[in-house]
Amino acid sequence: MRRLTYSRNVFVPVTNLCRNRCGYCSFRREPGEGKLLSRSEVGRLLAEGGQAGCSEALFTLGEMPWMESGFAGLLSSVGASDFIEYLAELCEMALDEGLLPHTNAGVLSQEDLETLAPLNASLGLMLETTAHLEAHDSSPGKDPRLRLDFMARAGRLKIPFTTGILVGIGESRDDRIASLQKIAGLHQDFGHIQEVIIQPLDPKPKTALENYPPPGEDLMRQTVELARSILPSGVAVQVPPNLSDPLELARSGADDLGGISSITPDWINPSRPWPSLEDLSSRLKGYHLRERLPVYPAFILKGWYGERTEDVIRSLADGDGLRRKDYL
């Protein structure tokens, strides 16, 4: 049986303020409508994640929220003066709960990257595309040069890294190939890309792309096949099972299902509930589902992970670097 890996996570939407205004995003809120989770709110989610047997605390937020008006007041309301220091504190809380932080914070400065790296098992940033698209016209952080530079800086620090492409946002097949080739090149240079997500557009009401057709099954299969042919063999191809048929995409070369949560929604795609593990097992006949940590086994064995995460990783990982089956 072929193996499909996944992780169990608690999805923590730290703040929904963001400097970008992407044409497909419903996560971002306008100044005055945004929210910043308090320590108590985060602590409650982390405790629920720990009790549910999760291994990953997925911290997701808008990019550079401090550039949005009103954010300083939100930060003050939680008794913090610096957002990255506050985010680092939340990562510490996750580790205290026995969970491994994986943070998606957008493009960061070198100083901020070095602050968060020791506290995270891995970090993430979607490349999305190397093309310059209308959907990103109001999103300075979606400049592919900035995103590729950030991923290269993470590579120099030997940070296990998750990235991916968005399918169906106006890009061409050649654009998808170019994006995958850039990711492959980063891994060849630095060896730090652990997985690449092939994520379809999920058109949302009241967004600029609400009338775009979502990519069909054939396009998704073709894109997964492209990814598997372009990416190095040690880089996993991930497909979110709440957005696509995982069986067809596994047959096309996908080997990971990403993070699945039994306690929190997919805050980026809130109308797409996670399937249960029982449902996935019944749908994925002929495949063996195996739980992993938010840092992949190869990087655990090399010691590539945040130094402050080592004790939790050692408590959760088995001898192969996957999730211990006896741990709850």
Précis, in short:
This protein has 328 residues and is α/β, with parallel strands linked by helices. The chain has helices at residues 39-51, 71-77, 83-96, 110-116, 144-156, 173-190, 217-230, 246-251, 277-283, 297-302, 310-316, and strands at residues 2-15, 56-61, 100-104, 122-124, 161-167, 193-200, 236-238, 256-260, 287-291. The chain has one domain (2-316): TIM Barrel (Alpha-Beta Barrel), CATH 3.20.20.
How does this model look, in words?
The protein has 328 residues and is of the alpha/beta class. It has a single domain, classed as TIM Barrel, CATH 3.20.20. The chain is 34% helix and 17% strand. Strands 1, 2, 3, 4, 5, 6, 7, 8 and 9 form a nine-stranded parallel beta sheet that branches. Helix 5 (144-156) runs parallel beside helix 6 and helix 6 (173-190) packs parallel to helix 7. The longest helix has 18 residues, at 173-190. The protein is globular, with a radius of gyration of 18 Å. The two termini are 25 Å apart.
- Total tally of structural domains: 1
Radius of gyration: 18 Å
Helix proportion of residues, in percent?
25-40%
How many β-strand stretches?
9
Largest sheet: 9 strands, parallel
Structural class: alpha/beta
**What name does CATH use for the topology?**
TIM Barrel
CATH-scheme architecture: Alpha-Beta Barrel
β-sheet strand percentage? 15-25%
Shape label: globular
Number of helices: 11
SSE string, helices as H and strands as E: EHEHHEHEHEHEHEHEHEHH
Low-confidence region ranges: none
Q: What is the residue-averaged pLDDT?
A: 97
